[in-house]
Specification:
Shape: elongated
Helix content: 25-40%
Largest sheet: 4 strands, antiparallel
Structural class: alpha+beta
Radius of gyration: 20 Å
Strand order of the largest sheet: 1-7-3-4
Number of strands: 9
Number of domains: 2
Number of helices: 4
Length: 178
Amino acid sequence: MPDLDAAAVERYTQGRLHRDDLETLRLLAHGVAAARRFCGWHVSPVIEADEVTLDGPGGRLLTLPTLRLDELTQITEDGTDLVLADLEVSGKGMVRKRSGACWTARFSGLVVKMTHGYDNADDFNAAVLSLIDRASYAPSGGRARVIGPFQYDIEKAAGGWTDQERAWLAPFRLERSA
């Protein structure tokens, strides 16, 4: 699936939400922001030369806010540029010093420049589109099902992610530290 845009929302909702409608654009921005917050990073698209300031972990392993690292181009630790050849770098965003030395423990002690993200994140996009579709039905975010005199919402978690949406986002979610 290509990048998320208003045309993708229109296709997903089979024309119910129009690409030129400001509400569609608002729902799209909200849905993408909510998914990125849930995952802990931007996920898609690939961002080149993304500069991120991080608190130093104080240990031997630095975990970057990404699960898809294409290239690490620079790390500055406490104002000093590090030699990238002196680092071991994982495609999942983990970095350690070959010397075994610890990273700084300073808040905002690291500045990292990297290229990261997914070109294609179909499950991420599916979760966002599903949330947008569900949120657009009613202020409560769900459709009602009526059986005789009884009525209940089909979709639970109107203010959050459904179980299916969480399953789609799970592979993109950063682990949370305590």
